[in-house]
Design a protein that fits this description.
The chain is α+β, with helices and mostly antiparallel strands. 35% of the residues lie in helices and 23% in strands. The chain has two domains: 5-47, Roll (SH3 type barrels); 51-136, Arc Repressor Mutant, subunit A (Orthogonal Bundle), CATH 1.10.10. The strands form two sheets. The protein has a five-stranded antiparallel sheet with strand order 4-3-2-1-5, with no helix packed on it. A two-stranded antiparallel ribbon has the order 6-7. The radius of gyration is 15 Å and the shape is globular. The mean pLDDT is 91.
């Protein structure tokens, strides 16, 4: 479930929303479990709102994560530190119709890094999320 999982510009990794205060969110890093305040001036993105461009439209990140999870039988994805060509080949395997002109290697690195962080933290229970996405379509 991707609810409450955030990416914050300028900070590596992913964060889980713990609480909110008057003018900030209190978040906890999924990497080192440290807590910090994330202010409205930070560019904060909820993973559940992120989509990947394809030739037929946008595909929610949860659907991409589910595809990776199936490919890897629940294991780790390719390292985000792999070469650009390796990342592109892997992306083609998990999302064959991704838009090669609008999805950059830097985007792929984030997707695979995020997937691996979620996998390490056992946060890849995506069945409900993917079902909700299909119902909305």
């Amino acid at each position: 479930m991707l609810k409450g999982i955030l990416a914050i510009a300028g900070h590596s990794g992913l964060f889980k929303m713990v609480s909110n205060s008057k003018n900030a969110l209190i978040v906890e890093s999924l990497i080192d479990k440290k807590r910090m305040a994330a202010y409205a001036s930070s560019k904060i993105s909820a993973l559940e709102d992120i989509a990947i461009f394809t030739d037929e439209g946008d595909v929610q990140l949860a659907v991409v994560f589910k595809s990776i999870k199936e490919k890897e039988n629940g294991g780790q994805a390719i390292s985000h530190k792999a070469s650009g060509n390796e990342l592109k080949a892997y992306m083609t395997e998990v999302l064959p119709n991704y838009d090669e002109d609008r999805v950059y290697v830097s985007d792929m690195k984030k997707v695979f890094q995020w997937y691996n962080i979620l996998q390490e933290n056992d946060l890849l229970d995506l069945e409900e999320t993917v079902e909700e996405i299909k119902e909305e379509e």
